[in-house]
Write a structure and sequence with these properties.
Distance between the termini: 30 Å
Shape: globular
Helix content: 40-55%
Strand order of the largest sheet: 1-2-3-4
Strand content: 5-15%
Radius of gyration: 19 Å
């Protein structure tokens, strides 16, 4: 699978990380992950975390799960940790738009995990927590982020857009735009957003996201 195609290169660049034995059909990568990062004029941070990454080869489009196993990130929603202990790196649809299809493990770590760890390290240094942008945890955060993606405001707006994305493309294009402009979707600016999302996000994720709301 593309996610693991550059696994050797990833491990070479992160010598503190290594493959661990597994009997569950998943790929487990654990160890000390180092990084040096700076974003949008914020201070440069060099740090390392004890990390456990779980990859699901049987589900090629499923994002890896990440666990911080060094007890630096408090296990609660306020620190963006899910009930199962995995890190909440962002809304699933947003992460897929950042990564695009066919992403590698290195791209996932660089674009999704390291920004999270960077924000955590900044907070430890006394800076504003998640100064790069922070969403509420849970359903409220999903609605807020998806509203930004779609250019809308309410939960009902988000639901309409997600429902449109669950339809076959030809059928969706002939329906009224979910933005309620009165035009068919194909004639509205929203159509460009939908085309981008269909090209980057697995279709089943739209249904899963709709159910989560």
């Amino acid at each position: 699978m593309p996610l693991l195609d550059n696994l050797d290169a990833f491990l070479h660049g992160q010598p503190g990380m290594g493959l661990k034995p597994s009997q569950d059909g998943r790929v487990h990568i654990k160890g000390r992950l180092k990084f040096s990062a700076s974003y949008d004029g914020s201070p440069t941070v060099e740090d390392c975390y004890q990390i456990h990454i779980v990859v699901f080869p049987e589900h090629q489009e499923k994002l890896p799960e990440v666990y911080e196993i060094g007890d630096r990130v408090p296990r609660d929603g306020d620190h963006h940790v899910n009930p199962d202990g995995s890190l909440c790196l962002g809304s699933p649809i947003r992460l897929h738009t950042i990564l695009r299809k066919g992403f590698s493990l290195t791209e996932f770590v660089d674009r999704c995990l390291i920004p999270f760890l960077y924000a955590t390290s900044l907070a430890e240094l006394g800076h504003e927590r998640f100064r790069l942008g922070e969403l509420p945890h849970g359903t409220a955060g999903l609605i807020e982020d998806y509203a930004k993606l779609f250019g809308c405001t309410t939960r009902a707006d988000v639901v309409r857009h997600l429902e449109t994305l669950t339809l076959k493309k030809r059928r969706a294009n002939k329906k009224r735009c979910p933005c309620l402009c009165g035009q068919k979707l194909v004639k509205c600016r929203t159509h460009k957003v939908m085309v981008m999302l269909r090209a980057t996000v697995p279709k089943k994720l739209f249904k899963e996201s709709l159910a989560a709301l």
